[in-house]
Structures are given as C-alpha cells and as structure tokens.
Amino acid sequence: MGETPALRGEYQHTKRRRERLVELVEAGSGSENVHALADELDVSVSTVRRDLAHLEADGKLARTYGGAMGAGRLDRSWQVKSTEHQDRKQEIARYAATKVARGMTVLLDSGTTVAEAAAILGTRPDTHLVTNGLSSLLALADSDADVTVLGGRLRRPSESIIGAATLQMLQHLTVDVGFLGAEALHPTRGLNCPEMDQALVKQLMSTNSKRTWVLVDSSKLEREAPFSYWAPVAAGCGVITDSRATDAQLAPFRDGGWIVEIAPA
C-alpha cells in the first residue's frame, strides 16, 4: 500500500518545521528556550521537544537544559574550552597524575582537563590507559604508555566516543583509577552531560573504577547546568579542583560524602 497524499503532506510539513527550528536555534544568541521556540512555530512545547530530539540525533543541534543550541555553536565552544582556565586545568592534571601508581590501569573520559592528565600519564611506559576521548587520544599519539581506545559512536561536539559499543567494552573492564570530566558538577545529581548516551557511559565508568576522580576547575562547581542529563557517580567519589575553589562551593560536596582535594597552584 503506497504513501497517501495526506501522509506526504504531513511529512513535508514536519520537514519544513524542523528546518525552520534549526534556523531559529542557529540564529539565536545562545541556548534557545523551548517555550519561545514553540511560540515562534505556533506548535506545542511537546512537539518542539520531539523535534529537538530528532534533530539532535541527526547532529543538527544539541539539546540543553530547557532548550537547544546549534551544533556549530557547540563545536566552537569546545575549541574555546580547550584554552579556558588553562592554568587551572594544568594544576588539576598534575595533581591527578599523582594518584596513579606504577602498573595501574587508568580510565580517561573525554574532556579538556582529562586530556591534560592524559598527556602527563602518557610519559609513563608502565601504565595502561583506556580512553573514549579524542583529545586524550591525540595527547597519547606518541605515548610510551599502553593505550586502549574504546569503540562506539563519535559525538563530535564533545569529542567523545559513546553509545552501545562503548558500554559493551566498559562492561568487561575494571580499572584502578577513573578520571572523568563534566560540563557541570552537582553534589547529589552527579555529572552534567549533553545527552543520555554520554551520561550512561560516564556512570558506568564510575561504577567500574576502583577509585573515581572528577576533574573540574572551580568554575564548574557553581555553574548552572547547561544540559538536561546527569550521570550519578559511585559513593565515595572524589573531585579534584583548583585552589580558587571557595569553601561555599566545596561544602555541599563534602557534606554529600565526596572526597574533595585541591590541586596546589
């Protein structure tokens, strides 16, 4: 039975609406709110959310907390992030590397601070490093260490490898130390992530690490969560941050059972 004219019309209408949705998000100044988008398109908020999910799966934009931003804007922000707070990231990376002893297997998440740690650990030939982060992988290109790359789907904006294949490989791993990155960090909800697949990968990384350390500069301890998804972490998880972190920022993590350590300047 062929496609009816009504179905073809509905398909074209949806296609045009989604194209217009991408235009609106790309033309915006940042993260565009779902309610404003629904008003502009004269559709329900639930319709906008379904469209955003479809467009994110196609890589045309990325959902944020309560809205969306263009994929191109996220790509540019990743390039900016690699140079933001560079001194803080290097302080954290140097301190994180002291947590790794000879012969350990270390799991390296995606993220710019984790990539700084990867560059240091890569000079150790007696270390086994496992990563799903492209930035870490590039830092390890000429490494003396034993390096394993997790397979899966490439998420370009965050330069990470995620998905079902990544989870399958992680299920067969137990590592001594896991270093994780996050867009923002919350004492009870965990690590803020751009999409569900990434949250699932981070959660399993934490579960399968004998000791988990989240590496974040102090700006991420009070940052409003930009995305809708969260990766809860195992009890007793640690956070390593920089010396600019305040007592007010750190107190909720200490009260929540986190191990909090400050990298010296």
Automatic annotation (TrEMBL):
Residues 15-70 form the HTH deoR-type domain. The keyword Transcription applies. SUPFAM superfamilies: NagB/RpiA/CoA transferase-like, Winged helix' DNA-binding domain. Pfam families: DeoRC, HTH_DeoR. It comes from the Bacteria. Keywords: Repressor, Transcription, Transcription regulation. GO terms for molecular function: DNA-binding transcription factor activity. PANTHER family: GLYCEROL-3-PHOSPHATE REGULON REPRESSOR, HTH-TYPE TRANSCRIPTIONAL REGULATOR SRLR-RELATED. Repressor of the lactose catabolism operon. Galactose-6-phosphate is the inducer. This is Lactose phosphotransferase system repressor. It comes from Leucobacter aridicollis.
